[in-house]
Structures are given as structure tokens and as C-alpha cells.
Design goal:
602 residues; Helix Hairpins; three-stranded mixed β-sheet; binds zinc ion; metalloendopeptidase activity; EC 3.4.24.-; protease; hydrolase; Pept_M3A_M3B
Length: 602
């Protein structure tokens, strides 16, 4: 049973007084920023009047954004630490409204900026050289110019925003509110209502019959509602294709990737390379068969635990381990890691009403706070070094970049966190010699790789296929989606679709298919991290320095250019090949351990 928040030791709670000393200080700042937003309304219509006005308005917009962000993170972190406190629910609601007000106030900025010609902007910069501080920011805006429509057309599209979002919202409501999963038996024989939340713990149950029942119960519902799910997904794909076409992009994928200036070849290279390495996944599946002693392995056996080892870390041990692992990055990095512990950036323990899961956050003007819900497990140790990776990325970026570039894109975010996880894996494997513990660590790594690089690329392939099919005029019926998904799944896992009939409906329950070419970044990020971790552990001082330069670059350049400076060229397949080499080495060791009987009890 979780404690009340006031029963948790102070040193296990984050210290948000460095953000705002008191709630009163937050309220005061809120009033000031609100007033400044009112004043900023008069800036509309004058952005491009002169070079001076462009500079002044840009600076005002960024300065207010910076303050809104700080107000927002304080409110949301206070709310997350105990969501039952009405005071902080209210603060969070006020902060959200302030964000919306900010968006409305500065809605004029982009369209007015787009009216500048390249020549006019160049002249402005000669007149007021300080505008050069914003070169990359302006360049990114201008790169969208060819895809901005007339103001009447833009108004029409903006007005239809809610309608475009309707099928994704319908999916969300259907899947989270209306769908009721059957009641099944848990390991003690009790009746339990199956939910999205407890499904994965059933998949991790050691008893095969329990896994099978949960799996069949879940998919019976997706089978029943497959036509509705096909309609929500199909309509959402139509929205992406329609918007891309309207904005004169060659495809939905080209439009989505243009946001981060990523060439489509990065996506194709990923899919090609993963396909080439599918025999490794088949080897992993065969090993799973052998360890579990199951000849006819089914999709519901894919998450069953392979290791019985109870490998425990207390939080204090995990802190020491984190410091020990991350010292490889050198004194600058380590000093900041230690500071995060000493200055209480981390909210460690679970308490009643606390938001579940883990994250790293904060804003440009605050420390990079972390939220955890600590349990003494190997998984939680990995979570701590993962979030620490995000927090160090944020810290280095915020220290080294002005606010305008003081954040980083999603495409690069997961690289900093998973590099740390990969380094932890390397460190543990270097020091631990006993077979059973190595087995547990290798298993953790291989499952992570399988779930990220292979599974998310499978999703990416499916997502791309259905966008192309719709663009070519194919109707995305449930039958079409089921067949496509079943074939892909058979190709990936090497196990027959006829013997796993339920998996054909899996597409129906994946919320990420509504995110518009999002999932492939998990795979590219993990593979890049795997490659970088190898370079950091076995490479030169220069490799480490290049890596730190990536952490410091923020949004000062396009993501591919930033990561290229860390030594990863994501336009070719070398980084993927290297990541698969690591996977293969570890898979081979696990196979050898299994041959020695390391997975057996006793
Ligand atoms: Zn993360």
C-alpha cells in the first residue's frame, strides 16, 4: 500500500522551491505574464514593419514563452506529485489556459513572417545584425514556406482542425472508455477484469494457460469491433494523405519527416536493414522456445519471463551504480549527475495520488527534474540511468544554448537516454561473471532491443504500407488491415499466422498508429544509441567529446546534422549494422549460456 506524500522522507522528494519559492510567487508571476500577453496583442500586424520590429517582437515572443514554460512545469510537477490535491489541479488548469492564450496571442507570428521575401530578410539582417542570432530559427520557418497556402485556404484548414482530429479522438474514446474487456482468472483463481493496464502483467505471467486466456480475451474484443477500428484508423490515414497533398508534399511520409528535416531515405534504410537482420529475431524466438520448453511458441509467449533471478537494487545502491556507470563521460557530466542527487532533482518514491511511470522534465529556467516510482529492481535501475540521460541532455543544452535553441527534437531525445542504458548494460556485463546474473542482464537487453528496434520497425512498415495503400485508392477495410498485419507479423517473428490467428487484430490497439510517422524514431534512436555506447566505452576521448557536443547542441541545427557531429551518420546503414552486431554478440552469449543450462533452476 502506497504511503501518503507527507510520510515520505524529504531527501526522497524533489525540491521545487528552486522553481518558485512559494505558491504565492507562482500566482504573482502568473498575473504578470498574463498582463504581458494582453499587451503583446498590439504587436499583431506589425512583425515585418521593420528590422527593429522583427527583432523586438521575436524577442518578446521568446521571452514570454520562456516564462509560460516555467509556470507550466511548476504547476504540472506539483500536480503530478499528488494528483488528488485540488490546489494543484487548479494551478495546472490555469497554466494550460495560459499556454493556449500564448498560442492565440502569437498566432500572427508565422503567417506574417512568411510574407517576408529572402531578399527582405537579408536586408533586415544587414540593418540589424542581432537578427543573425536567430538564423536557424528563421531558416526552419522559411523551409515551410513552399507548403503554406493562401491565407483563405489556411483559415479553412485551421477551422477544420477539430474535424481532422475526429477519427483519432473516436479511437481514443472507443479504446479507453467504451471497450470493456472480459473477466478472466488470475493466478490465484480470482476473477479479474482485464484492462489495458493489467494486460501486460498477464503476458508476463509464468503460467502459460493464464497468458493464453488473457490474450484470447483481449483479442476477442478487437475481433468483435474490427470494423469500427478499421474505420477510425483508415480515416486518420486519409487525413494525413489529404493534408500532405493539400500542402504539396509528395506523400504523407514526406510531410511528416519534413518537420525535422529528415530525408525519407533514413526511414527506408531502417526498414531495409531490419529486414536484412530478421534472421537474428528468428534466432531469438527459437532461443525463447528452448528456454521456455515450448515447441509451438505462440505470440502470447513472447513476454513470458526467461530469468527467475531476483536481481535487486535498493535506491541507494542504484545511485552508486549510476554514478559509477556514468563517470565514463568525464568530470563535467559526472558533476551534474551528482548535483541532481544532492540538490534533490528527483522525486523517488511512490505515494498515494502520484502520477505513475517515470519522466525527466523541467524547463529552460529550472533544473532537469525527474519523477520516478521506485521499486528495488534491475528494471528500475535502468529507468534511473535512462531518465538521467534525458536530464543531462537537457542540462547541457540549456547551459550552452540560448532559449530559442534550448530544447531538442523528439528524433534525438531518446538517443541520450538509451545510450546510458546501453552503457549500463556494458558496465554490468564487464563486472558480473556469474552465469545466472549475466543471463538476466542479457535477457533484459535482448528484450529491449526486440521491443524497440524490431517491433517499432514492424509498426513503421505497417504504418507506411497503409498510407501508401490509401493514397493508391485501396480501401482500408478490416480484412485488408488484418491480412497485411498477419503477413508482417509472420515475416518478423517467423511463426505462422495460421497458428496465431488473434495477432492479425493487433493493429487495432496501437495508439501510435495515430501519431503520424512517429514510431520509426524509437528504432533509429535505439540503434544510434547502441552504436554510440560502443564508441564511448571502447573508443577515444574524442568520441566522448563529440558525444557531449551533441548533448550541448539542442535545437541549434537540424537533428541529423547534430547527431552527425557525435559520429553517427543516419543517412547510411553503418550505425544499424553496428547495432545488430552488438545484438548478435549478446544473443550468441545467451545461446551459449542456455547450452550450459544457466537458465535452469538450482
Ligand atoms: Zn525516454
Amino acid at each position: 500500500m502506497a504511503k501518503n506524500r507527507n510520510e515520505i522522507a524529504e531527501d526522497r522528494k524533489w525540491d521545487l522551491t528552486s522553481v518558485f519559492d512559494t505558491d504565492q510567487a507562482w500566482d504573482d508571476e502568473y498575473e504578470v505574464v498574463s498582463k504581458e500577453l494582453d499587451d503583446a496583442k498590439k504587436l499583431a500586424g506589425h512583425l515585418t514593419d521593420s528590422a527593429a520590429s522583427l527583432l523586438a517582437t521575436t524577442k518578446i515572443e521568446l521571452a514570454i514563452a520562456q516564462r509560460v514554460e516555467k509556470l507550466y512545469v511548476y504547476a504540472s510537477m506539483k500536480n503530478d506529485q499528488d494528483t488528488t490535491v485540488a490546489k494543484y489541479q487548479e494551478l495546472q488548469a490555469k497554466a494550460t489556459a495560459l499556454y493556449a492564450k500564448f498560442g492565440e496571442t502569437f498566432a500572427f507570428y508565422e503567417p506574417e513572417f512568411m510574407t517576408l521575401t529572402d531578399g527582405e530578410l537579408a536586408e533586415f539582417k544587414v540593418e540589424v545584425p542581432e537578427l543573425n542570432d536567430f538564423n536557424h530559427f528563421f531558416e526552419k520557418l522559411l523551409s515551410k514556406k513552399a507548403h503554406v497556402l493562401s491565407s483563405a485556404e489556411e483559415a479553412l484548414l485551421a477551422g477544420a482542425g477539430e474535424i481532422f482530429g475526429a477519427s483519432a479522438e473516436t479511437f481514443e474514446i472507443l479504446d479507453n472508455a467504451d471497450i470493456i474487456f472480459p473477466t478472466i482468472k488470475d493466478s490465484e483463481g480470482n476473477d479479474v477484469q482485464l484492462t489495458h493496464g493489467n494486460y501486460i502483467s498477464f503476458m508476463e505471467n509464468k503460467v502459460r494457460e493464464i497468458r493464453k486466456n488473457a490474450y484470447q480475451a483481449l483479442y476477442s474484443i478487437y475481433n468483435q469491433f474490427q470494423n469500427t477500428y478499421a474505420k477510425t484508423l483508415g480515416s486518420n490515414v486519409k487525413v494525413h494523405n489529404f493534408q500532405a497533398k493539400t500542402r504539396k508534399y509528395s506523400s504523407a511520409r514526406a510531410a511528416a519527416l519534413a518537420e525535422n528535416h529528415i530525408p525519407e531515405s533514413v526511414f527506408d534504410t531502417l526498414v531495409e536493414s531490419v529486414n536484412k537482420h530478421l534472421p537474428l529475431l528468428h534466432r531469438y524466438v527459437n532461443l525463447r522456445k528452448e528456454i521456455l520448453g515450448i515447441n509451438d511458441l505462440k505470440m502470447y509467449d513472447m513476454y513470458a519471463p526467461l530469468s527467475d533471478l531476483d536481481y535487486k537494487f535498493t535506491y541507494d545502491q542504484a545511485v552508486d551504480k549510476t554514478i559509477d556507470t556514468l563517470k565514463i563521460f568525464g568530470p563535467d557530466y559526472l558533476e551534474r549527475v551528482k548535483r541532481s542527487f544532492d540538490e534533490r532533482w528527483i522525486d523517488v518514491e511512490e505515494n498515494k495520488g502520484k502520477r505513475s511511470g517515470a519522466y525527466s522534465g523541467g524547463s529552460y529556467d529550472t533544473d532537469a527534474f525527474m519523477l520516478l516510482n521506485w521499486h528495488d529492481t534491475l528494471d528500475n535501475l535502468f529507468t534511473l540511468v535512462h531518465e538521467m540521460g534525458h536530464s543531462m541532455h537537457s542540462t547541457f543544452t540549456r547551459e550552452n544554448q540560448p532559449y530559442v535553441y534550448g530544447d531538442y527534437s523528439i528524433f534525438l531525445a531518446e538517443i541520450a537516454s538509451t545510450t546510458n542504458e546501453n552503457i549500463l548494460t556494458e558496465t554490468l556485463l564487464e563486472e558480473i561473471k556469474d552465469d545466472k546474473t549475466r543471463f538476466a542482464i542479457l535477457n533484459h537487453y535482448l528484450d529491449g532491443f526486440r521491443g524497440t528496434v524490431f517491433r517499432q520497425t514492424q509498426f513503421a512498415e505497417f504504418e507506411h504500407d497503409i498510407h501508401e495503400a490509401d493514397a493508391a485508392g485501396t480501401v482500408l477495410t478490416s480484412e485488408f488491415l488484418n491480412n497485411l498485419y498477419a503477413d508482417l507479423n509472420e515475416k518478423y517473428y517467423g511463426i505462422s499466422k495460421e497458428e496465431n490467428p488473434e495477432i492479425q487484430y493487433e493493429w487495432a490497439r496501437i495508439p501510435h498508429f495515430y501519431y503520424n510517422y512517429y514510431v520509426f524514431q524509437y528504432s533509429t534512436g535505439f540503434a544510434a544509441a547502441s552504436y554510440l555506447a560502443e564508441k564511448i566505452v571502447h573508443g577515444t576521448e574524442q568520441d566522448k567529446e563529440n558525444y557531449l557536443n551533441y548533448l550541448k547542441a539542442g535545437n541549434s541545427d537540424y537533428p541529423l546534422d547534430v547527431i552527425a557531429r557525435a559520429g553517427v551518420d543516419m543517412t547510411n546503414s553503418v550505425y544499424l549494422d553496428e547495432a545488430f552486431k552488438v545484438f548478435e554478440t549478446r544473443l550468441t552469449e545467451l545461446e551459449e549460456l542456455v547450452a550450459k543450462g544457466a537458465h535452469l533452476n538450482g
